[in-house]
Amino acid sequence: MSSELSIDAIRVFSAGRDEPKWLLKKRLDGLKQFEKFEAPTFSYGLGINLNTDTLDLEIAVPKNLWSVASEITSTADKEIIVKKLSDAVKDEDLKDYLFKTSPINKIEALHQAVWSEGLFVKIPEGKEVKTPVNITSDAKAIAIAEHNLFIAEPGSKMTVVQKSIGKPQFKTANSEIHVQDSARIQYGEFQNLSEKTNYFSKKIAYVQKDATIDWIACDIGARFGGVTLITNLEGRGSKVSSRSMFFGRGEQNFDFYLVANHKAKDTTSYLDVKGALDGKSKAIYRGLVRIEKGAPNSDGYQNEETLLLSSDAEASAVPNLEIDNNDVKCSHGTAIGQIDKSKLFYMMTRGMDEITAKRKLVEGFFEPFIQKIPVDVVKADLKKIILERIGGINELKH
Can you list the residues of the chain whose pLDDT is less than 70? Predict the structure, then answer.
């Protein structure tokens, strides 16, 4: 990594933004961890690896990251607090909310040290907002480190729809979400960056008593897309529903890592990933449902389905269960396969050409997944994105 990334550079940058001392310490802790961690390899066993030939962390130096990196726009109800995170750290007491969990790899540590963009969103106690908070991040620079913080106070309800577009070479986009007692956040993210972008996204939620978070992630852009969704079910009766989809083509690579940590009684997790791969694209799904000793009567489920549209496409699934309590219900399922040729033949005998039949089968593959999404505006956007990608499917490649 360039010498431009140093303790002195971070001190100067933090002072120029008038950041509190506790935040400077977190940045310096990130730098310390960055220097300790080995470079990422994205290899998870024999034959389970991704292509990272285009990944260059040298791009992520201050001169690139600390310029005007993106245009972040939002629309929200007037009663919701929405401001730049760089301003919020001066106005709000966020020490216990921001970077609550230490980084676990080199890219996360880099992000903690150098982030410069992002929003702070808070919904007041008892407030229910039916109009989604819409956030669009349009990347304008070579490298971007974006961090968002969301707080749903007790009994509140909020829907967030976040879209990430643009043509950076490197981007990290992390979010921390705190869902307090009996609150609910529905969080939908759509990533459609340039297929020359290396993209790393980590979303982590802390869910308290009788609270719920619904994740909805759609990834179709980026050359390399690394997506991590971690949910800590910390309060009794807390729930997570996570629905993620991807649609790869060309030489795109996707790395999905979904985790549900059951830390309290009567907690529920549902992790579902559905994807399609065309061309020479590749995807790895890693899932973990962890049920701790103090979490009896918990219910965890994870499922992954991938449809291979080309003989050159590859997918791997690595689901895991860690159960330290006997009084639980926990299971998983995976399915990776190609289009059913008998169904394709049947549709062609009814007058469809091969390409049209193939597109209709792919649409049918995603339709049950879309219908389960609880947010209508997200459902509509997701269907539009999938139909556009399906429109690019050509002849079968054997």
Answer: 1-3, 60-77, 394-398
DSSP state of 293: T
DSSP state of 326: S
What confidence tens digit (pLDDT) does each residue in 224-275 have?
999 999 999 999 999 999 999 999 999 999 999 999 999 999 999 999 999 9
Q: Which of 215, 220, 269, 270 is nearest to 247 (CA)?
A: 220
User: Do 156 and 182 form a contact (C-beta atoms < 8 A)?
Assistant: no
The residues, ordered by sequence, that sit 6+ positions from 159 with a Cβ below 8 Å of its Cβ are: 129, 130, 132, 133, 185, 186, 187, 188, 375, 377, 378
Residue 22 has, within 13 A of its CA and on its CB side, a CA count of 11
Query: 319: which residues sit within 8 A by CB, 6+ positions away?
Result: 285, 286, 287, 288, 302, 304, 332, 333, 334
Classified as helix, coil or strand, 394 is coil
Spell out the residues 6+ positions from residue 392 whose beta carbon is closer than 8 angstroms to its own: 249, 278
CA angle 31, 116, 19 (to 5 degrees): 80
Cβ–Cβ < 8 Å for 151, 160: no
What is the separation of C-alpha 79 from the centre of its chain, rounded to a whole number of angstroms?
Answer: 27
Closest CA to 154 of 235, 258, 94, 75: 235
Helix (H) or strand (E) holding 351: none
